[in-house]
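Lines hold sequence, tokenised fold; shown next:
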Amino acid sequence: MTAYISATFKELTRKRVFLVTLILTALFLILFAFGVRELVGAGGLGQSSSAERLLNGMVLMVMGLFFAQFLAAFFVLFSAMGTVTGEQESGLLLAVAARPVSRWRLYLSKWLGHAVWIAVYSAILYMSVAWTVHSLAGIPLFAGDLVRGLGLFVWMPLLLLSLTMLGSVYLPMLGNGICAALLYGFALFTGLVEGISIYGDTHPAVQKFFLVTSLLLPTDSVYKRSLYEVLGGADWAGMALSDLGPFSLPSIPSNMYLLYTVGYAAVLLLLGCRAFSRKDL
């Protein structure tokens, strides 16, 4: 099983999308650091009071992590959307599946191989954004908050990976990529609309719609909880995220909801293993 995980590593690094992702990520981090430095310079936020600088630093953290989750999500989509059907069309999957290894083990090995790379990439991206805002904008970050936010930020793309790999068993590569991207975008759009809803009374039916969407694809809710944790939880996050329009947090996902996401990922993996075991190669 370890050999298959290692092979997934090598296969992923050989894809052009991996190199393109690294280049675009580096470009994003450079531009983000430049923008933060300019904003906190002598003519920008540096002349504000301490409270204003703290609030502005939190807003910069929100903006940075918001775009960072985009990069993490699309890295998942472009690297995993053809995990099964893409290799089946190229004939590679038939050669690999012919070996005396259970198909469910092969499926889990591929998931783990992608998951390790995605986790490492997401962790580096998260820490780079946090360090940039902390060092340039002076926002205080505590180890416990940073670690909790990191764990949840990494967990978000792993949920999307589980869904994308399940789709790759049933759908062709391009169709699976489009479907997963639309679901992710729909969850993100719903989260932004929910943020706007704090400015007026929300109909109960709309609230139920938000809940159902968060249950079908919990990526946006997990990201929001990650943001809540890195900004200090109830101590500071409420101040920073209470009046940010679509980026506001009208509700914070509970620990029980996070437990639900673990079961959600487990069910997707179980369904993927079962479907792949029965798939006609």
